[in-house]
Amino acid sequence: MSHNTFGHLFRVTTWGESHGPALGCVIDGCPPGIRFTREDIQADLDRRRPGQSRFVTQRREPDEVKILSGVIEDGDALVTTGTPISMLIENVDQRSKDYGDIARQYRPGHADYTYDVKYGVRDFRGGGRSSARETAARVAAGALARKVVPGMVVRGALVAIGENEIDRANWDWDFVHDGENPFFTPDRSSVSVFADYLDGIRKAGSSVGAVVEIVAEGVPAGLGAPIYAKLDQDIAANLMSINAVKGVEIGEGFGAARLSGEENADEMRMGNDGRPVFLSNHAGGILGGISTGQPVVARFAVKPTSSILNPRRSIDADGREVEVLTKGRHDPCVGIRAVPVGEAMVACAIADHYLRHRGQTGR
Amino acid sequence: MSHNTFGHLFRVTTWGESHGPALGCVIDGCPPGIRFTREDIQADLDRRRPGQSRFVTQRREPDEVKILSGVIEDGDALVTTGTPISMLIENVDQRSKDYGDIARQYRPGHADYTYDVKYGVRDFRGGGRSSARETAARVAAGALARKVVPGMVVRGALVAIGENEIDRANWDWDFVHDGENPFFTPDRSSVSVFADYLDGIRKAGSSVGAVVEIVAEGVPAGLGAPIYAKLDQDIAANLMSINAVKGVEIGEGFGAARLSGEENADEMRMGNDGRPVFLSNHAGGILGGISTGQPVVARFAVKPTSSILNPRRSIDADGREVEVLTKGRHDPCVGIRAVPVGEAMVACAIADHYLRHRGQTGR
Amino acid sequence: MSHNTFGHLFRVTTWGESHGPALGCVIDGCPPGIRFTREDIQADLDRRRPGQSRFVTQRREPDEVKILSGVIEDGDALVTTGTPISMLIENVDQRSKDYGDIARQYRPGHADYTYDVKYGVRDFRGGGRSSARETAARVAAGALARKVVPGMVVRGALVAIGENEIDRANWDWDFVHDGENPFFTPDRSSVSVFADYLDGIRKAGSSVGAVVEIVAEGVPAGLGAPIYAKLDQDIAANLMSINAVKGVEIGEGFGAARLSGEENADEMRMGNDGRPVFLSNHAGGILGGISTGQPVVARFAVKPTSSILNPRRSIDADGREVEVLTKGRHDPCVGIRAVPVGEAMVACAIADHYLRHRGQTGR
Amino acid sequence: MSHNTFGHLFRVTTWGESHGPALGCVIDGCPPGIRFTREDIQADLDRRRPGQSRFVTQRREPDEVKILSGVIEDGDALVTTGTPISMLIENVDQRSKDYGDIARQYRPGHADYTYDVKYGVRDFRGGGRSSARETAARVAAGALARKVVPGMVVRGALVAIGENEIDRANWDWDFVHDGENPFFTPDRSSVSVFADYLDGIRKAGSSVGAVVEIVAEGVPAGLGAPIYAKLDQDIAANLMSINAVKGVEIGEGFGAARLSGEENADEMRMGNDGRPVFLSNHAGGILGGISTGQPVVARFAVKPTSSILNPRRSIDADGREVEVLTKGRHDPCVGIRAVPVGEAMVACAIADHYLRHRGQTGR
């Protein structure tokens, strides 16, 4: 991953800030002949879209995707031609406001200070490039990546908000996208707990972190590489590139550090269909950097957004000590909308490795 | 990171298997004029070297580095010329043995099965490319990377073995490399606990995981990029590329998911020297993907090696169900020797970003 | 250069087809703080724009550039922020027509056949991705690249059309952009010759090739690398990536093959200002892949466009033998409008190496 | 191509200087299961080896290749495992001598001055990294690349030395490697002309340039991409990366600039076997950046080496004006030994695109 491009054969470049006229992505290296519809892309964007419940930012953005290149029409469908696919999403709700002091203040926990140190110039409006809006471009790219690997299904779910964890015994993928579920939680019983908890956070003008889990099923065995270009490594890099993500783990993850070799190693038998089966999946579907054919399981930790209504001590660009509080529309738990983003980033990583594997081995 | 090369401007390519004649690395893009000695490289290699206590593999390898290109001699020192630096380490103790059944058996938790699925051919001797021996090449590269960033000090420590965690109140960097400390633990009081625990593991023919923490001090503010090519992301990718690593976190990491925005955001004041100071370091030295000037803090989880003496159910390459047990010399806790490896990977990531930042900004 | 991205630190990704809604580019890695105006970009686009004389295609495109990201406004100027800069140019004059047979016929000398063999699907409208329109995106990127290297001036000129070469004794850079000069020729005396010649070509429904020379002055010494990432090599790759280019040379180029070592080597003396001077520039400003500080000189050969009115034998996608003739608006000498494109590609290559050199050496 | 690595999926990194202990390459991304022998590699190295006639340098190097990783033995053959393949060639004949003044003098036409400007430090022995010895590593890599594309045959020939061109009517591939042919010329009648001419050059202490042509047959149609990552562009970059190369052309190359569209476009018919045939090959086997299935034809110009016995004016590192003459063993026409090097670079470019095409399209 270099600069604003990620992927090696399925390459995604994103661009755009929160308060510019638009944002978008260019997908390069997509196989030709992939059929999809604009609605396939839009559906994923809609899941990430703000303003859908009181638990996410109230910014109103239709997030309508335009597809500008790299496809031909075939009836109602679009078909990729193998040339770069440019997608664009206009920014509509860039509420004009007086940024006033905030333009020069360094909000604690935000990248304001580091931007200024690095670049010496900064688009302070809405977080600039670090805005969660940028993730719309990733989601658009991921919607196409899903089509690249035949049979692959990538799904995500919120597994913890703050101290509150789901009960895994209640895991229900169907519930994740249920209309009554504003959290992408797979555990119906967690909704009221999360809602009460987040209402408290929201009313207190505070914010809280979360943990998201992504599961990719139907990933062929053999994708990845032994030690560099490990599939888990590229998934980790892709997830860690999402705003506010501070930790990533695969399979047992940090839990593996507490296991013995006997406990952690997934035993194998021959299945009834004459194919190998694993008796467990501590590895999260990846052994030695290469997919096993089991579901690929990754989790990432999202820190609480630093945009909070409570004043915090900081400095400004002139070196003055100030108190900062961030008004405006913010997600009390930015981790919620990170679920479709995480799915997209995992889908892109796997699609890329699918093409790389095919390139190297012809399989 | 692509294939067996990592880094963008400070680029490291490694090669070699456990049981071939040698292994090594090529470092490309190193600045010219960097002075170092062969001993600088050797010292780091010696810290990673096996056979130094009963808690690591008894394979005996001198791990003597040869420097084949990219330098000129200047008195006792070597000076980089800006051309690729090739380093080579011979494999000496490749005990010849009858691999017998193991050649076709898939050891649970190992990459044997995935190698065969991916490549259709496999060097089964000693784990092939996935051997921990490969990390010697990384350590050699990292020893040079340390020289690239003026004033940077990168140190690592083992902070947990299995269920046993260190007491952070006892943290003592000096003790990490004390001759009486076979664990790179920073907590003197943990040595006997770890020793008793690992003796039990070792005698039981088992293995256990660990958590390693890396701290880089003296990292200039401004390295990295907002959302892709984030410094934390490249550190995560580099660490996740190490054998057996299944989780990575920066600063508070997964703990950040449980914090509020107020708790997690590091407040700022002006220091007595007229420079900004942070009042805490939950961010682990990186905000919005860019270094803050505070210490960069990363942790990674190492799974227990799957080479254990206790039989486990598996299959072989012919689809026969078998019981596998792995004789030979192995690390009961491969996480111990991962400490200098983690330091090297963090040093390489930061050196790369140091050059990238200088390239883009001229600073 | 990989897929549709070129450059290593100053990275340009282009997208778009001739007959889609728009085309554009994303420039990633641009230094922050570069000041420019939309007019700077537009001026270069205007030089490349079709329809400006009877010697180029009559397609009417305003080629108005929109800048969508990566900049902030500062008075009348734009200032780069260090984040990706997205530029977009709408396609306006996509004359709807009945492509009829042409949709399945392989035009000789065009990429129709190879597209179908490669991708199995093809946007046959106007040459698809291979349209000369794509070069507008390069020109936009190049206009920004020019700003990256302080003091650099990159200029191009047409030095031959078909068999007709300019007289180098008449070289006049000022004349190249003279309003009476539809050819970018630096030789005033060549205009009537070129005009008569091309009128004949045009009326015959034929086309002809050309040679373009690019000269970059003010290039600092030290850019490039000894054998890979040679500055001349990256210039060659950039120029060869332009549609219809079939040859590239640096300095004496193919002429160097006929010289002796004495003739070809540029001697050096100390200048009056105490700085080294070269007594000739056979090397074209690049020795051992690294810039000398002299003007960088490159030439490239553009083949005649294969869109001609005279019937040629070919086959169609069904394997039928057909006669093909290409109606529509075409450049009789596509090499003319390649002049600003060549400038842009050389500017991008040098800007990239300027940043790379600064990254590696700190100078 | 970045730094000292070229290729995208079939990636070659080379390292080493003329007078260090060794040089070599690491080939990453090679498909698994490729069978070859050490002799396959050695045979190509032997063709490039110095000292084989009076027309090339008298340096005596056995150039014996060692293969250190990435393969397993299978009887007499080696089989690639898909992991990086490290090859090493020791430098044997590093005649120790007193470099004296030459260490600080800038030889005209050499990269001495530009190295010093760029790096501020320089390995002046034997040209350092710019030595023709480095090309041995490319030849070794190319020997393996040839095996990657089934049925591909890549051959090269010298087509001009100084003003002397071959007669293409006499082209005989068999003669190129005839023992009586010290020039890789395909024209038996040229040998005595070239020999007399070069004897004169050699005795005069001078040197001369040459033109080399490479022809790759058996290249599948469909490799490459429309405008960036064009097959011809990557071939051009690979050839231009060879020391002393100053021009590259594909098919008609610069000659295409003088042709009309009718003359240049290759007509097509259906062949007797029901497959498309081209009636000519002006395109050099590449249309729109994508291979047509016809032979790929590239030519490159090699400048005369600047190591000549006749004194030339220059300066030294202290800014003193000096006269330089280069004693020692040199090739009077370095273009001769460039023939196998050019073959290797073309083979590597095509192998890389073969894998990339397979990755993107699955074909």
UniProtKB/TrEMBL annotation, chains A, B, C, D:
CDD domains: Chorismate_synthase (cd07304). It comes from the Bacteria. NADP(+) binds at residues 48, 54. It catalyses: 5-O-(1-carboxyvinyl)-3-phosphoshikimate = chorismate + phosphate. It is an enzyme of class 4 (lyase). FMN binds at residues 129-131, 243-244, 288, 303-307, 329. One of its GO terms (cellular component) is cytosol. Pfam families: Chorismate_synt. Pathway: Metabolic intermediate biosynthesis; chorismate biosynthesis; chorismate from D-erythrose 4-phosphate and phosphoenolpyruvate: step 7/7. Reduced FMN (FMNH(2)). GO terms for biological process: amino acid biosynthetic process; aromatic amino acid family biosynthetic process; chorismate biosynthetic process. InterPro entries: Chorismate_synth (IPR000453), Chorismate_synth_AroC_sf (IPR035904), Chorismate_synthase_CS (IPR020541). Its cofactor is FMNH2. Keywords: Amino-acid biosynthesis, Aromatic amino acid biosynthesis, FAD, Flavoprotein, FMN, Lyase, NADP. PROSITE patterns: CHORISMATE_SYNTHASE_1, CHORISMATE_SYNTHASE_2, CHORISMATE_SYNTHASE_3. One of its GO terms (molecular function) is chorismate synthase activity. Its EC number is 4.2.3.5. PANTHER family: CHORISMATE SYNTHASE. This reaction introduces a second double bond into the aromatic ring system. Homotetramer. Belongs to the chorismate synthase family. This is Chorismate synthase. It comes from Pseudaminobacter soli (ex Zhang et al. 2022). The gene is aroC.
